[in-house]
Design brief:
The complex is a heterodimer of chains A (781) and B (235). Chain A contains 23 helices and 22 strands. A six-stranded mixed beta barrel of chain A has the order 3-4-9-6-8-7. In chain A, strand 13 (495-508) and strand 14 form a beta hairpin. Chain B is globular and about 50 Å long. The chains are: A alpha+beta (781), B alpha/beta (235).
Chain lengths: 781, 235
């Protein structure tokens, strides 16, 4: 039907404003879907192939002292494929700036290639002899170290010089973090260096190894294998046994990819739903307007199906075009988006693939949504009787609108306000759609503002309100508590307390979790704990405080008895009472009285770090103190967060534009539709002496009333979204909690209003161009 | 032997309006011969449009029979009625009802396309006097020109019957006459049966047969032995 197709093309041309409005929403939805989903797939595919090429370990064991012979013993055990023992020591990276305290983990590797967790050489060669080392890529880039450069490390209080023979990536450090307590990568201040095994043992004086990495034959039996290993290695002082999913870098990656997949599935559906509703509304109005034409087509002998298909082609063309453009733009930008992630993740073999299937899925998804919505809109074609359609439509029975029954109120409205209210009540569906779009826009804006605020609040709150130490000093292993006195001699301080940060396996029934439990003074000045109701919590003399995400993971609550196991050789599992659940925005931890911890699980009078508040330059003053491996300051953490916040700002910008666009496009297209349908009404008003501005103001009033309702409805919606995000995106690293305050609500509403006003102003152009007088004369169907 | 294209037998149509049963047609019977030019004359509310709609397969009767070429069409299903409209009937409406987004020629081609008719569209456009206005959109044409397009559109499928509902109702006298002339020319040239319904009695002078209606009944059927040319009509 070439001529009907021509009619369709001209119909699209005549309604281009609305057509492009729906199209832009679909494009946006599918752009988000493909860009985010492709990025997730790119990351997952690349990560998996990286893991496969480098033979990434399935199990990571940390122990006190492991003999080399254990490697062969373990390899013969059930489900173990390969095992590799290694030595891992925290060293201090020496720079010309004496104030800098940089930790570099020295990890032993074979002189030739390792069999597990193989390094991916980016520059230089893999051949280690003597003092030659391989440096982790991120650290080398951040510190501008090249192959052939010399680096200095302090090991056991002695300075050693090394020559960088290669720069490499490691599957263990895709996300380079020192520990789960650090939360964000800081490649300039934490690095990894790979040293030939015998040489590292020689210079560190270590007879034993302290880590084993293993691969298994069947990952599904991983828990059983872990338990067996734990028993077998008990005598070597197992500190922790982690599987691949618990390994820090990999768990962050999996959570990040999972988060991307969730976003890619949920947000596009909102956009497609709105596009569908708009399309259904648009087509149902078109059918209403084309009633006579449809009657004529039926009189000519076209069947209902042929006419329905004619109109559905409109929906299908939006769907196909939107699906194609959205997915193509999404695919094209997914490379850049994946690149943005590479600022944080180091996957050397990242390949940006074009997922043709995704484009087909996008087009099909969009086509199904649009044709489905279109059918909903045009189904009334079946009811049009050709003979009846030639006659003018019987006007709707003019009922009083609800507000007219409230005489007191109605009498106070001016003539134009009465028209506004009548139009709103008579076109409920259209106005509900406008209100819903404005509500979604407001809700998404609020969520965006809140996320920006909450990330800031989470960090500031964590590092100023929750943790109050200016310095967190880490030792190389446990030290006698009296080491504090030595440190006190070096610096002037206002507060100083010893602390223990030590991994424990915590079990509650079937649920278990390996986390760092922190032992602190009962009357500590370095932490401020509050329960979920906001009441202050104190460290109990016995028992444990759990962070809320840990309590949730263990399904434990106050008063429950949970099992703690320390991994210290010969230590036994012990029941400990949960003394309270506390609010902690970053990290996942348990907290105990340090004396209780020592007494029950470790040895009396030991610590593995200190917290300090001091006006002194602690980094510089403690630089040469033996056995100090790390000095973390609040300033460092703040700096890392500021770097990270670039990503948040980019994300925020996208969200503000997308959510604003949704409101803008729907309001604009619905108003355009209104103008097209009410040309006769407006013409009559013009004849009566109304100016174009007065007619525009009337439309403004109608939209403003519904927008206001939308904004009001958007506030609880925003609250719901915020709770949803809190539940969906809370991980072991972040616990996203927080309430919406005026600080987020007000800017969100202001931004929404700006988009609404812009959409209104755009429609004024249309009103100004309309030839009202011509409309009164026209009788063409 | 008479060649009957349409036979109406005891046709009735009632509408239920709430609790009231409204009579639109009652016991209407007549026959139409192939190639005849028929005028159905009657005031507003006489049932002529209802009759036209039933003949055109756009409505169904409450009682009685309609035979087209000897075949009972009043029992047709929706689908059969659609095909009947597609291939047998051409409509011309009072308010033209052209597709606003198609040019004059495209409006005509649309029908030719639907029916697969081999009619030469240019020739039909010439026949209705619109050869030079083919590429204009309806909004760029006068009422008379639009009605010519509507006639061309109806003729393009080469229908057996051309049904015209008040074709001159929205036009001034001169334009109205020119439209009647086109209808007569089409009737002669393409040998289509033409049925015109109107309330304008002078038009009856050009018909071969005049069917007068009032309140849903046929009051008189007049065979016009000497139909006059449209140019001779005056009102």
């Amino acid at each position: 039907m070439k001529k009907l197709n021509k009619r369709l093309l001209r119909m699209i041309k005549n309604t281009k404003g609305q057509f492009f409005a729906v199209l832009s929403i679909i494009i946006t939805g599918l752009f988000i879907f493909t860009a985010v989903n492709n990025s997730a797939m790119n990351l997952r595919d690349s990560l998996n192939s990286y893991y496969s090429i480098t033979n990434f370990a399935d199990i990571f064991v940390t122990a006190a002292g492991i003999p080399e012979s254990i490697e062969r013993e373990i390899e013969g055990r059930e489900n173990i494929r390969e095992a590799d023992v290694r030595l891992s020591i925290d060293t201090r990276f020496i720079t010309d700036n004496e104030d800098e305290r940089i930790t570099v983990k020295a990890v032993s590797v074979d002189g030739k290639e390792s069999k597990i967790n193989k390094l991916f050489i980016k520059e230089g060669r893999y051949s280690l002899t003597g003092n030659e080392v391989i440096l982790i890529d991120q650290f080398a880039v951040a510190r501008e170290i090249n192959v052939g450069d010399e680096i200095r490390l302090s090991l056991n209080g002695r300075e050693h010089k090394f020559k960088v023979s290669a720069i490499a990536s490691s599957p263990e450090y895709v996300y380079l973090m020192e520990s789960e307590q650090v939360l964000l990568p800081d490649p300039g201040n934490f690095g990894v260096v790979f040293i030939e095994e015998d040489y590292l043992r020689k210079i560190s004086g270590s007879r034993y190894f302290n880590e084993i990495v293993l691969t298994v034959n069947n990952y599904e039996q991983i828990n059983k294998t872990k338990d067996q290993l734990e028993d077998f290695l008990k005598k070597y002082g197992v500190v922790r046994v982690l599987d691949r999913n618990e390994q820090l870098s990999n768990s962050v990656m999996q959570e990040e990819i999972g988060g991307l997949e969730t976003v890619s599935r949920s947000i596009p559906i909102v956009f497609l739903l709105f596009a569908g509703i708009m399309l259904a509304n648009m087509l149902s109005r078109t059918v209403k307007r084309d009633r006579t034409s449809i009657g004529v087509l039926k009189a000519m002998g076209l069947t209902d199906n042929e006419i329905i298909i004619h109109y559905l082609k409109y929906a299908a063309s939006v769907g196909i075009l939107g699906g194609l453009l959205g997915s193509i733009i999404g695919t094209a930008t997914s490379g850049a988006m994946t690149g943005l992630y590479l600022e944080f993740f180091n996957i050397p073999m990242l390949r940006v693939k074009i997922y043709y299937q995704r484009i087909i899925v996008s087009v099909l998804l969009s086509l199904i949504f649009c044709v489905g919505a279109g059918f909903w809109g045009v189904r009334s074609i079946i009811r049009i009787n050709p003979a009846e359609s030639m006659k003018p439509e019987v006007p709707k029975s003019g009922k009083r609108v609800f507000l007219e029954n409230i005489q007191f109120l109605w009498d106070r409205f001016t003539f134009s306000w009465r028209m506004v209210w009548r139009n709103i009540f008579r076109e409920k569906r259209k106005f509900i759609l406008i209100a819903a779009a404005v509500a979604i826009t407001t809700g998404l804006m609020m969520m965006t503002m809140w996320m920006n605020e909450i990330m800031d609040v989470m960090f500031v709150k964590h590092y100023t309100d929750f943790m109050k130490m200016e310095y967190n000093i880490g030792f190389n292993g446990f030290q006698d508590k009296r080491v504090i006195n030595e440190i006190k001699e070096y610096i002037n301080y206002s507060d100083m307390e010893g602390r223990i940060e030590f991994p424990f396996e915590i079990k509650n029934g079937r649920n278990s979790k390996i986390v760092t439990v922190i032992g602190i003074e009962e009357d500590t000045v370095f932490y401020d704990f509050h329960d979920l109701e906001g009441n202050r919590l104190k460290i109990p003399k016995d028992g444990i405080l759990l962070s809320s995400n840990l309590a949730e993971a263990l399904k434990a609550s106050k008063g429950d008895k949970i099992i703690l196991k320390s991994y210290v050789p010969d230590s036994e599992e012990k029941y400990v009472t949960v003394a309270g659940v506390l609010v902690q925005s970053l990290g996942i931890n348990g907290y105990m009285d340090i004396d209780y911890m020592n007494r029950e699980f470790l040895h009396k009078g030991i610590i593995n770090g200190v917290y300090i508040n001091s006006k002194d330059d602690v980094k510089a003053k403690l630089n040469d103190v033996k056995n100090i491996t790390s000095i973390q300051t609040q300033g460092d953490m703040q700096k890392i967060f500021e770097e990270f916040s670039g990503l948040i700002v980019a994300y925020m910008g996208f969200m503000v534009i997308f959510s604003g666009m949704l409101g803008f496009v729907i309001l604009y297209s619905m108003t355009l539709m209104s103008i097209n349908e009410r040309t006769l009404e407006f013409s009559s008003l013009r004849v009566m002496g109304f100016t174009k501005q007065e007619i525009f103001r009337m439309l403004m009033k109608e939209n403003s009333v519904m927008s206001l309702l939308g904004i009001i409805a958007g506030i609880p919606l925003g609250k719901w979204l915020v709770n949803y995000i809190g539940v969906m995106f809370s991980t072991d690293i972040y616990t996203i909690q927080g309430v919406l305050t005026l600080k987020e609500i007000v800017p969100a509403i202001i931004l929404t209003i700006i988009f609404i006003i812009s959409a209104q102003l755009m429609t004024y152009v249309k009103i100004h161009k309309l030839d009202f007088m011509q409309a009164l004369k026209s009788r063409i169907s | 032997m008479r060649d009957i294209v349409l036979r109406i037998e005891n046709l009735s149509k009632y509408y239920q309006m709430g609790e009231v049963r409204v009579k639109a047609l009652e016991n209407v019977s007549f026959e139409v011969e192939k190639g005849e030019f028929i005028v159905i004359l009657g005031p507003s509310g006489s049932g002529k449009s209802t009759l036209l709609n039933i003949i055109g397969g756009m409505d169904t009767p409450s009682g009685g029979n309609v035979y087209f070429d000897g075949e009972l069409i009043s029992n047709y299903s929706d689908r059969e009625l659609t095909m009947y409209r597609r291939y047998k009937i051409g409509f011309v409406f009072q308010f033209y009802n052209l597709m606003a987004t198609l040019t004059a020629k495209e409006n005509v081609e649309l029908v030719a396309e639907i029916t697969g008719s081999k009619v030469n569209v240019e020739e039909v456009m010439e026949a209705v006097g619109l050869g030079d206005r083919s590429d204009h959109f309806p909004s760029q044409m006068s009422g008379g020109e639009q009605q010519r397009v509507a006639i061309a559109r109806a003729v393009a499928k080469n229908p057996d019957i051309l049904l015209c509902d008040e074709p001159t109702g929205a036009l001034d006298f001169e334009t109205g006459i020119s439209i009647l002339k086109v209808l007569k020319d089409v009737n002669v040239k393409y040998k289509n049966t033409v049925i015109v319904i109107t309330h304008n009695s002078p038009i009856a002078q050009m018909a071969d047969k005049v069917i007068k209606m009032r309140s849903g009944n046929i009051t008189e059927i007049i065979i016009n032995e000497n139909p006059i040319e449209p140019e001779g009509i005056e009102w």
